[in-house]
Amino acid sequence: MIMTRIMTLKSPKEIWEYLKAEYEGNEKIRGMKVLNLIREFEMQRMKESETIKEYSNKLLDIANKIKLLGKEFPDSRLVEKILVTVPERYEASIASLENTKDLSTITFTEVIHVLQAQEQRRLMRENHEAVECNLNYTEDNALIVKKNRRSKYNNIQVFPSCPHCKRKGHQPNWCWWRPDVKCHKCSQLGHVEKVCKSKDSEKDVQIVENKSDEDKSEEDLLFTTSCVQGKN
């Protein structure tokens, strides 16, 4: 529709005047646009998720629109706006600016550079802490997995009763009392060296042999006594 209207115009001046009136409007309309933009500017607040660059670009965009409509917009208003609307995490940088700079003459670009420097330091610190946290989390997970692995094999609920020893907590092929396992201490089948009772067995055998010798001596004594009485 706009192209159709332009085609009816004869001179570049007429085209320019038409476009100017179409997009800018008259003085009253421009004034309303300026007021709306200023209201939008005053309502701006930096969000916690925003960066300094994103927020400053938003303010600059509104300021440039106001300037294009023929309204002056001093740099000091941008400085004042960003200093009072950034989150509290930038308070240290703002306090440093107040102590070292004249806020009435400082430029918007200088303020942005100072705030961005603090933002970058904070991000680097957070990234470093995140890396350390991830490393600790990985180490903790490794310990947990190792602990769970141990508890898995130590938990008596993991395996049913062993057919060899009738106990729980291990697989049959791990059993110390397997019939096919050979003891390296006594060379007998049916148990491992760890549970071998060969020393106890040797003691028992010795006790039995001693008892047999004592019984035999008593029998010999009784036999001799009976023989002596018969002769008398």
Task: Based on the model shown, name its key terms.
232 residues, 0% strand, disordered C terminus, 66% helix, mainly alpha
Put the structure in a nutshell.
This protein has 232 residues and is mainly α. It is built from 8 helices and no strands.
Strand fraction band? Answer: under 5%
Q: How helix-rich are the residues, as a percent range?
A: 55-70%
Which outline best applies? elongated
C-alpha-based Rg, rounded: 49 Å
What is the number of helices? 8
CA-CA gap between termini: 159 Å
Which H/E pattern describes the elements?
HHHHHHHH
Low-confidence stretches: 219-232
Strand runs, count? 0
Q: Can you give the mean pLDDT?
A: 76
Q: What composes the largest sheet?
A: none
Q: State the secondary-structure class.
A: mainly alpha
SSE inventory with pairings:
Blueprint: H1 2-7, H2 12-24, H3 27-42, H4 52-68, H5 75-85, H6 91-100, H7 108-154, H8 198-231
Description:
- With 232 residues, the chain is mostly helical.
- The protein has a domain of 104 residues.
- The protein has eight helices and no strands.
- α3 packs antiparallel against α4.
- The radius of gyration is 49 Å and the shape is elongated.
- It starts with a helix and ends with a helix.
